[in-house]
Amino acid sequence: MSLQRFIEQAISPWMSQEGPDSDIVLSSRIRLARNIENYQFPIITSNEEAKEIIQLFEEQFVDQTYDGVGKFELLKINELQPIEKRVLVEKHLISPHLAEDTNYGGCLLSENEAISIMINEEDHIRIQCLFPGFQLTESLQEANKLDDLIEQYVDYAFDEKRGYLTSCPTNVGTGMRASVMMHLPGLVMTQQMSRIIPAINQLGLVVRGIYGEGSEALGNIFQISNQMTLGKTEEDIVEDLKSVVQQLIVQERSAREALVKTSQLQLEDRVYRSFGVLAHSRIIESKEAARCLSDVRLGIDLGFINDISSNILNELMILTQPGFLQQYAGGPLRPTERDMRRATLIRERLNMEKQNSLDDEGGKTI
Length: 366
Hints:
Belongs to the ATP:guanido phosphotransferase family. InterPro entries: Arg_Kinase, ATP-guanido_PTrfase, ATP-guanido_PTrfase_AS, ATP-guanido_PTrfase_cat, Gln_synth/guanido_kin_cat_dom. Pfam families: ATP-gua_Ptrans (PF00217). Its EC number is 2.7.14.1. By secondary structure, the chain is of the alpha+beta class. The chain has two domains: 1-15 and 29-173, Creatine Kinase, Chain A, domain 2 (2-Layer Sandwich); 256-359, no CATH class. It is 48% helix and 16% strand. It has helices spanning 3-10, 47-61, 82-90, 96-99, 136-151, 185-189, 193-201, 234-280, 286-301, 312-319, 322-329, 335-365, and strands spanning 25-34, 65-66, 70-76, 106-110, 115-119, 125-132, 158-159, 163-164, 176-183, 205-208, 221-226. The strands form two sheets. It has a nine-stranded antiparallel sheet with strand order 2-3-4-5-6-1-9-11-10, covered by helices on one side. A two-stranded antiparallel sheet has the order 7-8. The longest helix is centred in the C-terminal third of the chain and has 47 residues, at 234-280. The protein is globular. It starts with a helix and ends with a helix.
C-alpha cells in the first residue's frame, strides 16, 4: 500500500479539518459516561448481560443513518486483532481499558470517526465526540444530541441527588469529561509549564499527556480536562475549562512572540535542525520523533517553514505510534525495526509534502 493511500485510510477524516485556534488547540473532546438501569456495572456484570447490551446497540444503531452523523459501524473488540485494537487506542477512538476486553466490549464509530460510543467499557456506555481546534461547546452540543438519542432506547441509571451513576465515583454527577489537546512548545521552552500545571490543578482541572492518565507529554502536547463532575452542570464545567484554555492560548502566543523577539536565530536553528533529523534519519525513537515534530510544527506556525502542511504534527504523532507502524508494515515489529520503520515513514511523508509543494508551484506558473 502506498503511503498516500495508507494515510487516507488511517487518519480520521475530522483530523484533516482546521478548527478555531488550531495552531495551539489540536482537538476538543467531550466524553459522557452512562449506565443502563437494572443492569450491573460492567466491572461485575455477567457475560450474558454484556452480550444483551451489545445486541441492543447492534439492533438499534447499525445500518441506521442519523442527521449530521451518518451511519455507525459496530466494532466488536473480541473480533479484532491486537494490532487493530492498538491502532484504535492510538487514534483515541477506544480506551486502553476497552482494548483489553476479551468478552463483549464494543465500539460504535461514525463515518468520519468524530463520534465514538464505547460499549461495556468501565461503564455500559461512553459517548465521545471529537472536534478539530477549540470547539468545546460544539462538542458538548453533539454529545448531548447523542445522549438524548440513546436515551430513547434505554433508561439510564440516575439518582435525583447524585446525578448519573457510574462505576468510578469520580465520574458520578454529570458523568462528563471535557478535554482539549494543546500544543504548548512556547511555554515549555520558556520554562513556564512547571509553574502553570500546579495552578491549573488548583482550579479543579488536570494536565496529562497525549494519551491521558499516566501518559507522558510527548511533543509538548498536553491534555487539559476537568476533574469535578459533581455539583456543576455540564455547561458550567465546559465554561470553566474554556476560560483556562483561553488564558493558556494567550500565554502560549505571548511566549512564542518573546522567543522570536529575543532569540529568533537560535529558534530557527532549532526548527531546521529538527527538520533535518526528520528528513534524513534512518532510525529514530518515538520521543525524539515527537520532539522534532513539535519543533517543526512550531516553525510552521511561526512562518519559518512555508511548504509543509500544519497537519503534519497531528498526522505523524499518530502514524508513528507502534500500532500504526506495525499495521503499515503488515505485521509485528521488534523495537529496533519500529524505529527504522518510523524514520522511513517520516522521510516518505516529508517527501510527499515536498512533491505536493512542487506540483502547486508548477500549477501556478502555467
